[in-house]
């Protein structure tokens, strides 16, 4: 049984990650801004611990790491993030940009740094960052979305740095693009399908894959 810590489980990908890992019988630590809302929607078993956590609150992150001191975390999934809106140049919101950098870029660094020793203590030793192909400079041919693109491009650099710095400890650090997930009622990639494919990428990864930026289907994405 693996231990999986997932941030941003209030809804969407994070909620689905928690559900799928829990269904496998893994121990899941699901962090949320509003745990009561998740508990009202999902009836998890005893292998899931729902924890209130604001990932931008460094003291709260360090407190949780302290509460779990001495325990192993096989897989740490940095999922919490602000997905949009994707403004055009003239509509760029500077305050939102600052908030997005705090949540999408700085918080995953703080969380990963706080839990390095927990991950190092485990067998799988994986830290995954849920990124986006919109953070790829090579793939940007449409412009706009300054806040979101820069937050994910920065996240990719943080991921790469962690991969290099933690490589000697055999910790695998990867970034994953979840794909274009369709909203409820629309056709396209479902949340469940996206998470299932990303889980496959995570579970097949090891020290030799560290520092890679993956599409949800396992394809390597360019920076």
Care to describe what's here?
The chain is of the alpha/beta class and 223 residues long. It has one domain: Rossmann fold (3-Layer(aba) Sandwich). Helix content is 40%, strand content 15%. It has seven helices and seven strands. Strands 3-2-1-4-5-6-7 form a seven-stranded parallel sheet, sandwiched between helices. Helix 1 packs across helix 7. The protein is globular, with a radius of gyration of 16 Å. The N and C termini lie far apart (34 Å). The mean pLDDT is 95.
Rounded average pLDDT: 95
CATH architecture: 3-Layer(aba) Sandwich
**Low-confidence runs of at least 5 consecutive residues:** none
Strands of the widest sheet, in order across it, are 3-2-1-4-5-6-7
Q: Choose one word for the global shape.
A: globular
Distance between the termini: 34 Å
CATH topology: Rossmann fold
SSE succession: EHEHEHEHHEHEHE
Give me the secondary-structure category.
alpha/beta
Just give the CATH class: Alpha Beta
Tell me the number of strands.
7
